[in-house]
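The instructor's notes for this session suggest beginning with a concrete chain rather than abstract definitions. Hand out the sequence below and ask the class to guess, before any prediction is shown, which regions might be ordered.
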Amino acid sequence: MKKVGRTVTVLGIPFYRTTKVEMVATLTERVRQQQRTFVVTANPEIVMKARGNQQLNEAIMQADYVTADGIGIVKATQHLADPLPERVTGFELFSDLLTAGNKQSWSLYLVGSSDEVINKTVQVIADQYPNLQLKGYHSGFFDTEMERTAIQTDVIASQADLVFVAMGSPYQEVFITEMLSQLQKGLLIGIGGSFDVFSGTVKRAPLIWQKFNLEWAYRVLTQPSRIWRMKDLIRFYIATIKR
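After discussion, reveal the predicted structure:
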């Protein structure tokens, strides 16, 4: 983690103190300068996973920036003199960087979700961001370890300016860190279920829910199967108030 002077530690994870606008500007400049950059977008669930998963924790610690993808992370720092100012979500970084990349004719590689979703995502990008150069794409499912390695090799060879990996945690973070030492440039970000929302397969919470930081509640209401993941939110809350 390089930006120690601007980080706030939450349960051992150093979050970068920034706004979305500042983060997009910083990442855009790093792409222009051809600096290799790894970004983790972490919510309370990922923080709790990292406490019990050494591989994930080590992957997160290799990131150049960790952003607060969850209002619970921001709330956990509000007692500090200089807390995190706002959420900086993976979906918003994805959308804004596509816009920036379209203006600059950057190259792009996508990995994640199902075949159906990744194909829809590619089509939306082709329609809405015609100046982006798609170097390659693949679902987040691999039949063999050889296929997984082949995709990583293809990502490395592509030298893409933007690499978005939407496989969920810890898979996306580990997938990225396994390639880092062989990359000289490129911005690599794990963005969870962003392809599903971006492609229209899953509906994002209405703006009013977003405004009041209730996206998590909307997802539970519309996808009841996610309710089991609430246990990590509860564990996170208990862990932060015990500090």
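Then share the key points. Residues 44 and 73 are 6 Å apart (CA to CA). The chain has one domain: 4-241.
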